[in-house]
């Protein structure tokens, strides 16, 4: 049922309720973990166990599009980043979901995809089979499209490439409401010469365009990995989900069997079981996997589970006094996210109604309109509360914003870039980073790939998001108490010299949007602090104070790259030099695409399930 109450009886609450072994043991019942669990159990021939740190959240507000992730603090891990030197020495709360469904349960539901070039870049880094044409069938397989009615399509110019969707379990829908001010915002981009692609969802994701939300059109509630994948898997006898248990380690044995190994490796190391801890009683148990252990604990937790198991960069593992198992220097490095700031302005002459009228913290809040909107949604499942964070955004290539992109991607900046890397980088990691840097710089100069995004909804403030960072962060276990403390996360935002320069340019460019004639009709006025940032030096000061390191889109910490370029998994998603261990979550993404991550994570997980099935 879309309300999520039906299958609670099938959830396991303690280790005693489990079998001794399963064909597949999946670590993390978040977005990717539930996709893979559903696909591996669907033909009924293999047994699957998912072990999830969080619980099922059956509160109604998790399903409401308008609630927004911020109010769901109960469903997040509670930890912070390391001090970020370039962001005025501040720390930031980490956005990592701790609930069945993971990020898909708490995110802003915008279901956009990156440009074809963003995925083709993964292939270029040494991952055959991972270009956009390879992924498109999986974008299709995971989603079913619902367009809004014809009047809304015409009024707002909503165009979609229906062939880019299939009949998958995630509903990609356009809600039956859009805010009228959005039209002026879209037109302002067009006045600036920004194109409006008709096939954004099939690879042409550069320009100003519409994108669906992950919304069930039968009820206008959140469509996410739990409702779409878990709920249909839950009645199967061969599928178990254990909640409120934390996986601690993966255990390995030396195997004498001759299974095919990734990349002609000679290793005989086989992942055979996991240890996990009841979050209440703290009792530790073990369960075995006959075929594969599948890591899906997300970008922050998958690397530390490997490190706790002795797999990673040995100096770090030694310092934590963990027995060495396998040296893989790429574990926990290469962290990337979409840093952003909120571009704050007021509309003096906004059209009515507008989203500020629903915002209690805005002086434009209107109680009568608010009550009407609540009643419309509650009684008729329609009106403004069917809208999640946004369905419109400008995804702009750098050459739209900057006349001469060479000033940013110049060799001078590149020459300095090596000093931006963490001191722990080995030679292979440095070589891998050089490949990534060249690839990103070439995409920054390309009109076929976006460098910045500004989603908007008619509201008087919009995020300004940097899509192609070159700074690289780290995730590592706390050597003092590796099994008790959360991962140490250092985003290292703005460590690479190009990133700050890029952000200054896109900040300046965003001003042109306010100045476009269509936009001026809404009377946009920047808040004093932002308006006063005029020179590059002033903008830099503002950015260091206002930029946040993460949009919740963290990737890259167990990257799919060649082993001698700092990779952790190969294109078959198996951890190098091991048997029976794969990774399927956002951590394998080597380069962050120019889109929110949700749609991409579904496609990656669908493809992962096919790869795992094929080798079984
Ligand atoms: C606040 C927020 C807003 C976002 N907004 C959008 C958006 O609007 N659009 C969009 O497309 N994307 C958005 N994203 C990004 C997207 O949701 C994520 O990229 C995606 O969900 C990541 O999926 P995953 O499977 O890699 O990890 P997750 O979904 O995070 O799954 C990891 C799971 O592993 C569990 N886990 C962790 N450690 C352990 C352990 N030791 N033992 C057992 N279980 C463990 C966690 O509890 C979690 O359930 C947002 C993300 C966040 C956090």
From TrEMBL:
Family: Belongs to the GMC oxidoreductase family.
Keywords per UniProt: FAD, Flavoprotein, Signal
UniProt cross-references to PROSITE patterns, sorted A to Z: GMC_OXRED_2 (PS00624)
Binding residue positions for FAD: 99, 247
InterPro entries (alphabetical): FAD/NAD-bd_sf, GMC_OxRdtase, GMC_OxRdtase_N, GMC_OxRtase_C
Molecular functions (GO terms): flavin adenine dinucleotide binding; oxidoreductase activity, acting on CH-OH group of donors
GO annotation (BP), single: secondary metabolite biosynthetic process
Cross-referenced Gene3D superfamilies: FAD/NAD(P)-binding domain, Glucose Oxidase, domain 3
Domain Glucose-methanol-choline oxidoreductase N-terminal residues, every copy: 298-312
Lineage: Eukaryota, Fungi, Dikarya, Ascomycota, Pezizomycotina
Protein name: GMC oxidoreductase
Cofactor(s) the record lists: FAD
